[in-house]
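2024-03-11 09:14:02 DEBUG pipeline.ingest accepted 1 chain
2024-03-11 09:14:02 DEBUG pipeline.ingest length=323
2024-03-11 09:14:03 DEBUG pipeline.predict start
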Amino acid sequence: MRLGKKKRSASNRQRNRAPRVDIQGWYRHHLKCSVESLLGLVRQPISSALTWLVIAIALMLPTLFYIALQAMNAQTQAWQAGGQITLYLDQNATEPAGSELSAMLAPRPEIESTRYISKEAAWQSFRKVMSVQSDLELAANPLPASIVVVPNQQQRSDLEALILMLQDLPDVEDIQIDLAWIERLNNALDLARSIVQMLSLILAVAVVLIVGNTIRLAIESRKAEIQIIKLLGATDAFVRRPFLYLGLWYGLLGGLAAWLLICAISLYFQSQLTSFLADYGLTAPAIWLNVSEFIILLSASILVSLLGARIALWRHLKDTDPR
């Protein structure tokens, strides 16, 4: 009886130990494939460096366009933030009524600030300009009082909704705002974003083709080895693993090379951009990738490279089947 219990307990220990052995073997094979793939790239430095450089250039171009687009957005946000709506009041509107209307509009959530300009203040400002630029003298004040409204949002739809609300206010005779330049600016930025997205897609396909062709050559060079280990009972996952790690290293090191190229270009152009924009009274934005953008660049490079490796394995690994 005790002997039966001992046998059962021994068999239970063996069953419990078996998955642990499989997991350890799986981990060791992953580690071996990753190290051997990296060492294989190091043993062929010229061909590996050329592949990394091609991947880096393909990733660098859309990233540089993205950085330029972010710099344009930073500048245009300042320009758009300066957009104002001017409410011209009726000539019969009194100064207390205009000040009260300005104070009533200021707390609204869609309005950042308001400023009331009386008829006398507008007239004094106008006379200063006219005294410098012209000899024309006016006896009476033709200017109305006005309220300058600075909106919180600069999108066309938000501004149109705000104007619909403002034009129904009492004592408001006319509203002035230039929506055309805001619309043209937003359209230009939308076009630039579409170009960057299309360029990124095209160059991502190029990276897929580059890595896929490189993996195809690696499969062809090891075709006899793959056939032998398949005859010994190796699974498809076991055979694919070294080539997937090869694609992983191509993507990772290609992404790092792209980041280094971007840093070199940014270092070269940052001072020139700063001096150029300073002549126009503008502050140059930092043309660098932050931490999250750097992680996105590396992740995109790795994912695209793995996709290329996976496609190459799907298309060419079946040709090595010994049966």
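2024-03-11 09:14:41 DEBUG pipeline.report The longest helix spans residues 236-278.
2024-03-11 09:14:41 DEBUG pipeline.predict end
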